[in-house]
Amino acid sequence: MITAVIIAVAPANAALPTPPQAAATQQAQAFLFYGGAGDVFEITTSMIALQHSQNPQVRAFASMLIGDHTNLTNSNLATAKAAGVVPPPPELSPMQKGMITQLIAAGPANVDRVYLSQQIPAHQMALQMMQGYASSGDVPQLRQAATAAIPVVQGHLAQAQQLLGSLR
To answer: Are 111 and 53 in contact (CB under 8 A)?
Structure first.
């Protein structure tokens, strides 16, 4: 009897509503989570470097990272929203927290070397994540955002390597 009521109420050509795209896949969630945590790490360590570094090149690099990673975060959040994906809040890993502690503890003579030494593996990991998601991510708009971010991250990595080399 209930079946007869449903059939009688729904027209034969009625389409079921499309579920919202907010039911994002685990891949998009992981990309946004780890990307967000990476941006938080880059911004935080760069702020510390700005406070403690006396090297104008390192300070300029740190300022650039703050601006670029703030822009990447804002872009990814806007792209996720447009795609119907709700990003999880980023959370620093124990390793990232430890690196921040190490940078804070670095004395004036070591702060530039510690900061730049941390930026290289952080940007290598970010680049690997961006490239992986750009090639096989599950949300097309976020794949495009990852693709657009790759040259930015590559530039940061190259500059960190160059600056670290100039300190030695």
So the answer is: yes
Spans in the chain with pLDDT lower than 70 = 1-24, 168
* Distance, first Cα to last Cα, the chain: 82
Contact present, 157 and 65 (Cβ < 8 Å): no
Q: Are 83 and 75 in contact (CB under 8 A)?
A: no
Question: What is the dihedral sign for C-alpha 7, 9, 11, 15?
Answer: negative
Query: 52-55 long-range CB contacts below 8 Å, 24 or more apart?
Result: 52/106, 52/108, 52/111, 53/111, 53/112, 53/115, 54/108, 55/112, 55/167
What's the pLDDT tens digit per position in 26-50? 899 999 999 999 999 999 999 999 9
